[in-house]
Amino acid sequence: MSKDRETTATYVIQPGDTIKIIAEAFHTTPTDLILLNGNKPMVIKADNEITVPLDAPVGYSIYIIKPGEDIVEIATHHGVTLEELRALNGDVLAPGHPIIVPEQLSSQYHVVHPNETVQDLFTRFKLTPEDLVNLNNDIYLKEGQILKVEY
Hints:
By secondary structure, the chain is of the alpha+beta class. The protein folds into three domains: 1-55, LysM domain (Membrane-bound Lytic Murein Transglycosylase D, Chain A, Roll), CATH 3.10.350; 57-103, Roll (Membrane-bound Lytic Murein Transglycosylase D, Chain A), CATH 3.10.350.10; 109-148, no CATH class. The chain is 30% helix and 23% strand. The chain has a two-stranded antiparallel ribbon with strand order 1-2. Strands 3-4 form a two-stranded antiparallel sheet. The chain is elongated.
């Protein structure tokens, strides 16, 4: 997946966070994190706020897990399985951490997930091979591809 857009957000430091842990969670380096925060000394203390980079590949967005949220419900809400969510983000799925999730499209469209097969689409959307070809001109899948799945 290629990263093509970047923005920032305010992150509330969690107990046990270090500059290295925060940098890794946001796919950056400690040096870049310091530079993003004005190159000033940073106090890494629970409940302090810092600016962090948020970037996502095309067809995906960043979602920050809120305290008390259930990971399975987050996956279901974004139309992926827990396994797919872990494939996109690794095993660090904890409150306060950013995760990559598919962008919400109208129900007519679907973003192809990692390891998704044509058979998965036939079953999930009750499509025939002919339907998929008629809607999209082919049935070759690649991760991140947006397919039409309804007439």
